[in-house]
Design a protein that fits this description.
globular; three-stranded antiparallel sheet; 13 helices; four-stranded parallel sheet; alpha/beta; single chain; 329 residues; 11% strand
Length: 329
C-alpha cells in the first residue's frame, strides 16, 4: 500500500511540475516588455509595440562637445539624454554640450558667472523640460541662489534601434505579471470592441485612449488606441508661467536662452488646444514644439510618440531638433 502511495505522490508532483512548466512557458513571455507604458500598464507588446522602422542615426552625431568648445549648452531631462534631437544640430555644424537636470539641478542666480568659470563661450543655452515637470523645474530654479553642479559620467551612446527590439523573454520574471498581462489583454479585447469605447484607466498611472484616425498615426497592431500617462495635466499654463520664464531669461546675461518645452504625449494627441507654446514663441522666440508636432500629426507622421512610449520616436526627435535649429535662425 505504501509503495502505491509513494508512486501516486511522485506522479502527482511530476504532473504539477509539468503543469507549472507549461503555464510558465505560456505566461512568462508575457511578463517581458520593451516600452515603459506597456510595462506599467501590464499589456502586451504584441498589441502596443511599434512596428514601423525608424531612421538610422550616424553615431558621430551623438558626440558630446566639451564645455570649452561648445556653441550650445543643452540642459535637459530624459528627452535630451539620448542626444537625438541634438544630432540634428551637430549634423549642421553646431557643437552641443549636454547636461541633465540631475547634474545641473537648477538655473540659479549665479548661473552666468558659474558657466563662464566652466570655460563656456557659446551663444545658446537650451532649457529643455517635458511639460509634465515644467512648473516644478521652473519654481525650483527661481528660488535657487547658488549652483551646485553634480557631474554625472555618461557612457558613450549608441544609436537607437531602427526596429523595436523584441522583449527579452525572461523566464525568471514574475508569473503573476504574465497572468495579469493576459487578463488585461482579454479585458481590452472586450472593452475595445464596444462602439462607445473612449478609454480605460489601467494600473500604475497608465491610461489607454482611443485616438481619432489612430491607424493613420501608429504602427502597432491595436492602432486605434494608444497608451498615455494618466496624470498628465489637461489645463494650460498661465501668464504667470511666462513671467517666471522672463525672470530666468534676465539671469542669463549675454546668453540666448532657447526654451524647449516638450508637450506631454497626451497634449500632442488628445488635448492640443493649448496656447502656451504660441505665447512663448511670441515673447521669447521659443520653438513652438506643440505646433510643430501637431503639424506632423496632421500630416500623418507614424509613431511620432510610439504607443508604448512616453518619449518621442527617433523620427520625432529629429523633427524636434529641426524645430530647435530653425528657431535659432
Amino acid at each position: 500500500m505504501g509503495m502505491r502511495h509513494a508512486r501516486f505522490f511522485s506522479v502527482l508532483v511530476f504532473a504539477l511540475m509539468a503543469l507549472y512548466g507549461a503555464v510558465g512557458f505560456y505566461f512568462l513571455p508575457l511578463a517581458s516588455f520593451t516600452g515603459p507604458l506597456t510595462r506599467m500598464g501590464k499589456i502586451s507588446e504584441s498589441l502596443f509595440g511599434w512596428t514601423r522602422e525608424q531612421p538610422a542615426i550616424n553615431p558621430v552625431y551623438l558626440v558630446n562637445a566639451s564645455w570649452q568648445e561648445a556653441d550650445m549648452l543643452a540642459i535637459g531631462d530624459s528627452f535630451s539624454m539620448p542626444r537625438l534631437w541634438q544630432s540634428a544640430l551637430v549634423q549642421r555644424g553646431i557643437k552641443v554640450h549636454t547636461e541633465t537636470w540631475e547634474a545641473m539641478r537648477n538655473i540659479c542666480e549665479d548661473f552666468p558667472e558659474w558657466l563662464h568659470g566652466k570655460g563656456f563661450k557659446g551663444r545658446y543655452v537650451v532649457i529643455e523640460v517635458v511639460e509634465h515637470n515644467f512648473q516644478d523645474t521652473l519654481d525650483r530654479s527661481l528660488s535657487c541662489k547658488q549652483t551646485f553642479y553634480h557631474p554625472v559620467r555618461y557612457p558613450p551612446l549608441s544609436p537607437p534601434p531602427r526596429r523595436m527590439p523584441l522583449p527579452e523573454t525572461d523566464f525568471s520574471g514574475k508569473l503573476s505579471v504574465g497572468i495579469q498581462t493576459e487578463l488585461n489583454d482579454l479585458k481590452y479585447q472586450g472593452l475595445s470592441a464596444k462602439p462607445d469605447f473612449v478609454g480605460w484607466n489601467m494600473s500604475n498611472n497608465v491610461r489607454m485612449n482611443r485616438v481619432k484616425r489612430g491607424c493613420e498615426l501608429f504602427s502597432h497592431p491595436s492602432c486605434n488606441d494608444a497608451l498615455f500617462l494618466a496624470d498628465d495635466q489637461v489645463e494650460d499654463f498661465n501668464e504667470a508661467t511666462l513671467d517666471k520664464m522672463q525672470v530666468i531669461n534676465e539671469r542669463l546675461k549675454g546668453i540666448r536662452p532657447v526654451w524647449v518645452i516638450v508637450p506631454n504625449k497626451s497634449t500632442a494627441y488628445l488635448f492640443p488646444e493649448k496656447h502656451f507654446w504660441d505665447k512663448a514663441e511670441q515673447r521669447f522666440r521659443a520653438p513652438n514644439v506643440l505646433k510643430v508636432l501637431r503639424q506632423q500629426i496632421t500630416e500623418k507622421t507614424i509613431d511620432l510618440y510610439p504607443a508604448n512610449e512616453t518619449h518621442l520616436s527617433t523620427s520625432g526627435y529629429l523633427i524636434l531638433g529641426d524645430a530647435i535649429y530653425r528657431s535659432l535662425q
